[in-house]
Design a protein that fits this description.
The protein has 11 helices and 14 strands. The chain has 288 residues and is of the alpha/beta class. The strands form 4 sheets. It has a 4-stranded parallel beta sheet, sandwiched between helices. Strands 8-14-12-13 form a 4-stranded mixed beta sheet, with helices on both faces.
C-alpha cells in the first residue's frame, strides 16, 4: 500500500467485492448467530443461505456488534506497523458498534472511528468519500473530521416487499403485518442521517413493481441538490428485471456519473428479507 492510512469499515457497508478492491477497503465482519452457531457476515454465511434456512425451519439469525476488544485487536495488526486507521461503523442509532469502536480508538494511537449514522451503502457512500481523500493525500485526522461531517448528506431508504422478516425479528407487530398484507402496502424504511435511527416513511399500495417505480420518482424527481458522482441501487435479493427497471428510472431522473448495483449482506438482509431495494445517494449540502 502506498498510503500509510488503512481504510476500514464494518461489513454492513455492503460495498461488494469489486468496490472493496477498487477503494482498498478492509472489512470487519459483523457477527451473525444462526441456529446456535456464529458466522462472519459475508465470510461463511450468505443472505441466500439465511433465506433457505428460514423457508425450511422458520429460523432467523440474530446479529451482534463487534466489541471493543475485538476492534482493538483488529486495529493492532496495522498500528503495530506504524499505520493509521480510519474505520467507519454501522450507525450508532442502530447498533453499539460505533460506541465500541470509539472506545477502542480512544485507547490507541492513530485510530479514527467514524459513526456513519447510516447502514448498508448509505455507509458505503461515506467510505468512498474517505477513500478519495486518502488517495488525495489528506492527513487521517482531517479525513475523519470531514467524512464525519458529510455523513449528514448520505441518504438511505428502502422499499420492503414483505414485513414477514421484520415481524419474525420482533420489529413489526402482527397487526401491522396483517394490515400491510391486506392493503398490499409496501413501506419505505428511511434512515435519519442526523442520528442513524430508522422510521417508516411513505407506504406504497399495489404491486412491488408499482411501488418501486413511485419510490424512485419520489426520491429523485426535481432534486437540484444531488451530488452526481455516484448512486447505489442496493437490494437484498430481487429479480434482474426489477433492478433494470429501477436503473432505467434512475438514469431518466438524474445524471449520476456512476450507478452501482450491490447486494446487501447478511446483517441487513436478515432484518428486511428478500425483495427489498433502495436507492442511496448523497446531496451537495445538508438540507435546511
Amino acid at each position: 500500500m502506498s498510503s500509510r492510512i488503512i481504510l476500514s469499515a464494518d461489513s454492513t457497508c455492503d460495498l461488494g467485492d469489486e468496490l472493496r478492491a477498487r477503494y482498498d477497503v478492509q472489512y470487519y465482519p459483523f457477527h451473525v448467530i444462526l441456529d446456535g452457531r456464529q458466522y462472519g457476515d459475508g465470510v461463511d454465511l450468505t443472505p441466500d443461505r439465511i433465506y433457505e434456512v428460514y423457508r425450511e425451519r422458520k429460523i432467523l439469525p440474530k446479529t451482534a456488534a463487534i466489541n471493543a476488544a475485538e476492534y482493538t485487536e483488529y486495529f493492532s495488526q496495522w498500528t503495530s506497523q506504524g499505520y493509521e486507521v480510519i474505520h467507519l461503523t454501522l450507525g450508532s442509532g442502530l447498533s453499539a458498534a460505533y460506541q465500541n469502536c470509539r472506545m477502542a480508538a480512544e485507547s490507541m494511537t492513530g485510530v479514527y472511528a467514524i459513526d456513519s449514522r447510516n447502514l448498508s451503502t448509505g455507509s458505503g457512500l461515506a467510505v468512498i468519500e474517505a477513500a478519495e481523500r486518502i488517495a488525495a493525500g489528506m492527513p487521517a485526522a482531517q479525513i475523519a473530521q470531514e467524512v464525519q461531517e458529510l455523513t449528514a448528506r448520505c441518504h438511505a431508504s428502502f422499499v420492503i416487499d414483505t414485513l414477514e422478516f421484520l415481524h419474525k425479528g420482533g420489529r413489526c407487530s402482527a397487526l401491522a403485518r396483517l394490515g400491510a398484507n391486506l392493503l398490499q402496502l409496501k413501506p419505505c424504511i428511511e434512515v435519519n442521517n442526523a442520528d442513524g435511527t430508522m422510521s417508516v416513511g411513505k407506504k406504497y399500495r399495489g404491486s412491488l413493481d408499482k411501488a418501486l417505480e413511485q419510490y424512485v420518482r419520489d426520491k429523485l424527481t426535481g432534486r437540484g441538490d444531488l451530488k452526481n458522482d455516484r448512486v447505489f441501487i442496493t437490494h437484498s435479493g430481487i429479480s434482474e428485471e426489477r433492478i433494470a427497471m429501477v436503473r432505467r428510472l434512475v438514469e431518466e431522473l438524474a445524471d449520476f456519473r456512476e450507478i452501482f448495483v450491490t447486494r446487501a449482506g447478511c446483517t441487513i438482509s436478515a432484518h428486511c428479507g428478500p425483495g427489498t431495494l433502495g436507492v442511496l445517494f448523497m446531496t451537495r449540502q445538508t438540507e435546511v
